[in-house]
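Q: What residues go here?
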């Protein structure tokens, strides 16, 4: 059996260090509160809607010109992005619009202003042998489209939608895209009708095959050549 003298030593020690024990007690309370708050934050984030650029299925094509539209050192960029939105909540959400910006060569104000998307001329497609698979596009419907291809921005509770969005820009000098190891840093934002803004950053590989881009979306290079389709900036992001 434990010696009663041992208990007395413990009691004496506690009485002598009462102040330190009070501090330790409050530190433990604060640590528990912090851990609980962190847990609630992580849980809330996991249950919030999310937007993502699907890195492996997105296309980024940058074409350099010594001179274009009376400007020197011009880069025309085509961003064909496969954007997904996940809704893990118990209520439907509606995506109002997407915005995009990218890293530039500037050492200050490194990111561009946010760009608005432009309309895809045709639906993206994957051809394997004699078979062609048509892919979904946000906010666009083409003639004779099946109903399930029309992504109108509404995403039901605990559902997921993904489709392509097109952005085109024409820049010059240090406003040109910063390409590092064949990749360009992008940020996409999705604006919901609730006023909430979803954000995601990712580095997308540069596509160098011009013919492949045109075969993937027939007519996309003609859209890139159209000056009216480029640099549709917004200050609302």
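A:
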């Amino acid at each position: 059996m434990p010696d009663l003298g041992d208990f007395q030593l413990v009691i004496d020690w506690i009485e002598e260090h009462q102040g330190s024990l009070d501090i330790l007690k409050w530190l433990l309370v604060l640590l528990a509160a912090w851990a609980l708050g962190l847990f609630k934050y992580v849980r809330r984030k996991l249950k919030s809607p999310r937007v993502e650029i699907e890195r492996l299925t997105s296309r980024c094509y940058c074409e350099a010109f010594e001179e274009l539209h009376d400007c020197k050192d011009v880069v025309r960029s085509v961003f064909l992005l496969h954007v997904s939105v996940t809704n893990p909540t118990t209520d439907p959400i509606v995506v109002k619009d997407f915005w995009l910006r990218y890293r530039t060569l500037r050492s200050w104000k490194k990111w561009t202003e946010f760009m608005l998307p432009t309309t895809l001329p045709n639906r993206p497609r994957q051809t394997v042998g004699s078979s062609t698979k048509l892919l979904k596009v946000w906010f666009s419907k083409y003639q004779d489209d099946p109903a399930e291809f029309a992504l109108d921005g509404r995403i039901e509770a605990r559902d997921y939608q993904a489709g392509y969005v097109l952005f085109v820009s024409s820049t010059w000098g240090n406003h040109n895209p910063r390409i590092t190891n064949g990749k360009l840093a992008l940020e996409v934002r999705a604006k919901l009708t609730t006023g909430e803004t979803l954000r995601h950053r990712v580095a997308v590989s540069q596509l160098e095959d011009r013919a492949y881009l045109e075969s993937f979306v027939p007519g996309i290079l003609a859209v890139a050549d159209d000056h009216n389709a480029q640099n549709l900036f917004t200050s609302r992001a």
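A: Context that may help when evaluating the design: The first helix runs from residue 4 to 16. Residues 187 and 201 are 4 Å apart (CA to CA).
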